[in-house]
Design goal:
CATH architecture of the largest domain in chain A: 2-Layer Sandwich
InterPro entries (chains A, B): GAF-like_dom_sf, HTH_MetabolicPath_Reg, Tscrpt_reg_IclR_C, Tscrpt_reg_IclR_N, WH-like_DNA-bd_sf, WH_DNA-bd_sf
Strand order of the largest sheet of chain A: 5-4-3-8-7-6
Distance between the termini of chain A: 38 Å
CATH superfamily of the largest domain in chain A: GAF domain
Organism (chains A, B): Pullulanibacillus camelliae
Protein name (chains A, B): Glycerol operon regulatory protein
Structural class of chain A: alpha+beta
Largest sheet of chain A: 6 strands, antiparallel
Strand content of chain A: 15-25%
Pfam families (chains A, B): HTH_IclR, IclR_C
Shape of chain A: elongated
Helix content of chain A: 40-55%
Keywords (chains A, B): DNA-binding, Transcription, Transcription regulation
Oligomer: homodimer
CATH topology of the largest domain in chain A: Beta-Lactamase
DNA sequence: CTTGATAGTTTTATAATATAAAACTACGTT
DNA sequence: AACGTAGTTTTATATTATAAAACTATCAAG
């Protein structure tokens, strides 16, 4: 695949920032990317001119620009699933007091596109715009469990099962077995596999063609996940998932295979 | 300012998309930017490799990638004003039934970073991630009215007062007079200046240093803006604005000048 | 106050890359 | 089957991105 080195370098600059690294000096940027400082300077000024990078007037440090937010919301802002699901997440959060999420698959990761905080915010990991591994999260499992064998093979080729907690699945065999359980039950669970002390129940969302393109999940502190709670919550989340899918045009009665 | 042509070109590709143009063919992209199709192809493939552009497998058309959403939320996700204001927007919307917005200044435009729909969604213009002119909107006026004369001069140098509706202010003199009224009242109004049939009340939000860095607004259909409604709503929105500013560390009592 | 180190910005020669012409593949229409 | 258009690939070379060098600015140490 053809690659333009200077564009590649500019976009790598954008990749340097994260939740904890919100600003960087030019010397740090050139050091991390092994670039000459005048090259880094030119790249930064081009990004800045377009609004993708901003420079703090007082400290001279660089940070991500708001143009990313503007353009980013164009991607997600017109997704039907987001506006339709929103109401349901709000309702479920009010009914249960727990945190709800909406996630879509992007490549071989989930991406949080909505989140409704519960009354006591205990979920730390999730954040709109953040990515989440498919093997260690309820939403990740729900997103890929119903893919065709060919699609699943493509997604999992070369996939690395990084350990997130002591309970994370770390090999493909166990992961495939778990996906089988997801298909049987119709929902996914992650018991502290992604975030210690947090358990999530996730339901796939289908589009008008019956394909799973999103998932919703409810997250809670593990001690709250009693058998009784599971029996109460799963039907509620499933019901919300079905309504969201139907509002997206999914017609389950036509699914004869 | 040094500019790297190929990075500039790549970012211009990202600018081609908008709310109505969500996908484009490679020939259209090369035509619009007056680029050779093989140049466009190389640029697109580099953007795609980083996730900033996606290609539809069935149609071959290009669209903005989710990496923009991810990076964009890094910019805004850690802004205190957003999480603090959120609660107040929700409360005001529940109390009044109207749509509330949170906007920050980015260059010489406002940028919507949060929105809470009222019970009857009548505001069409605003959308999270969208930009809004400062001269024709309540939030825009609120954002710039309290700038120092030097800052205001810098913002307005070369500024073009595009007509948005029949009621838009279209020259600097009238705009500066209007900003004076905003300073006197402590809030801004746009009477159908930005969107026909919609009136907005906006309040500036100050940070811990007393600088206006954001604004909130309540929007309603113009017929609902009776004198009685104004008398009722302005104090509520002002109160919310003051609490949000205080929660951001603003201390009004220290403002002796 | 001077000196030295480091960071950031600018200049410019040239090595390296981006560019676009040409060629190729694929698809749809006539 | 032929033609036109879209999309992708190849490759020669014109053009640009690159980085060395120089400059400016700031800060800390002596």
């Amino acid at each position: 695949m053809p690659l333009i080195q200077s564009v590649d370098r500019a976009l790598r600059i954008l990749d340097l920032f994260d939740e904890y690294t919100t600003e960087l000096k030019i010397t740090e940027i050139s050091r991390r990317l092994d670039l000459n400082k005048s090259t880094a300077h030119s790249l930064l000024k081009t990004l800045q001119q377009h609004g993708y990078i901003d420079q703090d007037h007082e400290t001279g440090k660089y940070k991500l620009g708001l143009k990313l937010f503007e353009r980013g919301n164009l991607v997600v802002g017109h997704l039907d699933v987001r506006s339709i699901a929103r109401q349901h997440l709000l309702e479920l959060s009010m009914q249960t007091g727990y945190t709800l999420h909406l996630v879509i698959l992007d490549g071989r990761e989930g991406l949080y596109i909505d989140k409704v905080e519960g009354s006591s915010a205990t979920v730390v990991y999730s954040r709109i715009g953040r990515r989440i591994p498919i093997h260690s999260s309820g939403v990740g499992k729900a997103l890929v469990a119903f893919k065709s064998p060919a699609e699943l093979r493509q997604i999992l080729e070369g996939y690395v099962y990084h350990r997130q907690t002591e309970k994370t699945i770390t090999n493909e065999q166990d992961f495939l077995k778990e996906l089988e359980r997801v298909r049987e039950r119709g929902y996914a669970i992650d018991h502290e596999e992604n975030e210690p002390g947090i358990t999530c129940i996730a339901i796939p969302i289908r589009n008008h063609m019956g394909e799973v393109t999103a998932a919703i999940s409810l997250s809670m502190p593990t001690p709250n996940m009693t058998p009784g709670a599971l029996e109460t919550l799963v039907p509620k989340i499933k019901a919300a998932g079905e309504v969201i899918s139907q509002q997206l045009g999914y017609q389950p009665a036509l699914r004869t295979y």
